[in-house]
Amino acid sequence: MDDPGTAPQGDLRLRDVVAALESLYPLESAADWDRVGLVAGDPDQPVRRILLALDPTLAVIDDAQAWGADLLVTHHPLLLRGVHSVATTSAKGASVTALVRAGVALWVGHTNADVADPGVSGVLADALGLTDQRPLSTEGSYAIGRVGVLPEPSSLAGFADRLAAALPATAGGVRVSGDPDADVSVVAVMGGSGDDRFGDVRASGADVYVTADLRHHPVLEAREEARGGRPFLVDAGHWATESLWLADARDRLLAALEHPARATRVEARVSAIRTEPWTFVVGANAAREHRAATEPGGVS
């Protein structure tokens, strides 16, 4: 995605990098159901190259091996649900085997990266230039999502264009539910799946809510509750809304690893492999025309 960064290194070991990562994204802040932290690797193995990616797919693991990475850092877990075999007959098994054979360690920062400050949603809010940021909601001492103010008010359509320009392009684009000409100023964001936060969004006073993985029934109900008004809803895609975090995590990790006694260097870069699962769409223009002709405030 971008150029590698570097930081002073010396006899850097995996345990040193893990300690730095977990100072930035503490494991105890992860949700109870989550599976984060070190998944594979010897804490004593040296680390000279670190690759970051959203998902630990086979293609990403191949990228790590080809680049000579010693550590792969991903946002999404490899083994979120219990497995009883790591045979190469399954994709999960093939991934574990490939990591071990290549000597590539794997560390995961998922919901602990979501609630970090800044975390996934904070980086997204910063990319949109939101000011006066505050949590969308809180759980204990952790902030969930972000709410902030645009530098200047915008039409909903103009805001959608701004969002699309800030995010990597995807096949699905940005889906919007609301009047294109409505003015918006206060924006709530939640990187990744967020249709369980509509109540928090209403309570926040946001004009528009940006998240991903929005399903038909929750969106329809939320729009009914809003009587066609605010908050408007935007589905910008799971991969797109979370991928911005990777470069920020890389930079923060390199800064955390800086040490004046280390003479050689550790490299870290974001994988160029896109793990967005969708490859193309059809009929999008027809859908837009249908909305404009039948319900100007409807879903596009």
What does this structure look like?
The structure is a single chain. The chain has ten helices and twelve strands. The strands form two sheets. It has a six-stranded mixed β-sheet with strand order 1-12-3-4-5-2, sandwiched between helices. Strands 6-7-9-10-11-8 form a six-stranded mixed β-sheet. The protein is an alpha/beta fold and 300 residues long. It has helices at residues 14-24, 58-67, 91-102, 111-114, 120-127, 156-166, 198-204, 216-225, 238-257, 284-294, and strands spanning 5-9, 37-40, 49-53, 71-74, 105-108, 131-139, 142-155, 175-177, 183-193, 208-212, 232-235, 264-270. The protein has two domains: 5-113 and 243-270, NIF3 (NGG1p interacting factor 3)-like (Udp-n-acetylmuramoylalanyl-d-glutamate--2,6- Diaminopimelate Ligase, Chain: A, domain 1, 3-Layer(aba) Sandwich), CATH 3.40.1390.30; 114-239 and 279-294, Udp-n-acetylmuramoylalanyl-d-glutamate--2,6- Diaminopimelate Ligase, Chain: A, domain 1, CATH 3.40.1390.30. It is globular. The model has no long low-confidence stretch (mean pLDDT 91). Helix 5 crosses helix 9 (238-257). Keywords: Metal-binding. Homohexamer.
Q: What topology does this entry show?
A:
Blueprint: E1 5-9, H1 14-24, E2 37-40, E3 49-53, H2 58-67, E4 71-74, H3 91-102, E5 105-108, H4 111-114, H5 120-127, E6 131-139, E7 142-155, H6 156-166, E8 175-177, E9 183-193, H7 198-204, E10 208-212, H8 216-225, E11 232-235, H9 238-257, E12 264-270, H10 284-294
Parallel strand pairs: 3-4, 3-12, 4-5, 9-10, 10-11
Antiparallel strand pairs: 1-12, 2-5, 6-7, 7-9, 8-11
Helix pairs in contact: 1-9, 2-3, 5-9
